[in-house]
Structure formats: structure tokens, C-alpha cells
Specification:
Tscrpt_reg_Rrf2; 152 residues; DNA-binding transcription factor activity; two-stranded antiparallel ribbon; Arc Repressor Mutant, subunit A; WH-like_DNA-bd_sf; Rrf2 family transcriptional regulator
């Protein structure tokens, strides 16, 4: 099963957007992510609908942040991109009458629920400013060598 990297990719993009002068076009973001601008616009629409970004059309247009990174959490972005599943594993429902399957599903279900609760709490406690600060610390260690397209 392929992993859903939308959260990671959008966190990445938003931090870059905070660091550039002006707007980031869908084409620029698509090039950075190795995807199509249509995919970028579709994903950014959820962020726009939740008030994290704004888009301007025409010359000089593109996507801009509408809030400071300190006011946006990882959980906010997770929700804005549609609450993708945290886990690729799940319970079997092949034989719901089977008592063994019921016991297994009960144990797995409670473990998944506890893990998801912990992830949600962690995501809610980390702002994009926290991630940007870590980026700044890493950047200082490598003497200002840009490593991503929008940083250039």
C-alpha cells in the first residue's frame, strides 16, 4: 500500500511559502513536489477553504499564507487536507461472527484508537513555526546551502 504523503508535503510547502518574497504559484509548488499544478490547486483548495492560504490570479499571483506559522498546527493542516488515515493497517471483517476475529479486532481497535489519540495530541501541539525553527537550526549548520526549490 502506498503511503499518503500529503500532510508532509503540505507542511513542507507552507514553510517554504512563509520564507519566500511574494506568492508561490501552483507551477512552482508543483515543480518542487514533482507533481502536476492541478494536484497542487486541488490540495491547496482545502487549505484555502479553512483559511490558511489565499490565492490571487494573474501576473504576480499565486498562493500566500493568511496566518502566521505560529497560528497553524500540524493538526490544522491534517484536517484541511481531508483527515487522511493515520495507519495503513486495519482490522479484518471477513468473519464478523468468529469469536477469534472479534477478540483480535478488539485488541487492535483499542491499540489503534490509543495511538491515534496520541498522534492527534502531538499534531495539535506542534505549530508550523516550531517546524520552521527546526529548519532554521538545521540551515545554520550547513552554512546557507539551499536544499529545496522554493528556497533558491
Amino acid at each position: 500500500m502506498r503511503r499518503d504523503s500529503r500532510l508532509s508535503r503540505m507542511l513542507h510547502v507552507l514553510i517554504h511559502m512563509d520564507r519566500i518574497d511574494g506568492a508561490a504559484t501552483s507551477d512552482q509548488i508543483a515543480q518542487m513536489l514533482g507533481t502536476n499544478p492541478v494536484v497542487v490547486r486541488r490540495t491547496m483548495a482545502g487549505l484555502r477553504d479553512d483559511g490558511y492560504v489565499h490565492s490571487e490570479k494573474g501576473h504576480g499571483g499565486g498562493w500566500v499564507l493568511t496566518r502566521p506559522l505560529s497560528e497553524i498546527t500540524m493538526l490544522d493542516i491534517h484536517r484541511a487536507i481531508g483527515n487522511p488515515a493515520f495507519f495503513a493497517v486495519g482490522v479484518a471483517v471477513d468473519h464478523p461472527e468468529c469469536l477469534v476475529e472479534q477478540a483480535v479486532n478488539s485488541a487492535l481497535g483499542s491499540a489503534f484508537e490509543a495511538a491515534e489519540k496520541l498522534l492527534i495530541e502531538k499534531f495539535a501541539s506542534v505549530t508550523l513555526a516550531d517546524l520552521a525553527d527546526e529548519f532554521d537550526q538545521r540551515m545554520a549548520k550547513i552554512a546557507n546551502k539551499p536544499t529545496c526549490e522554493l528556497s533558491r
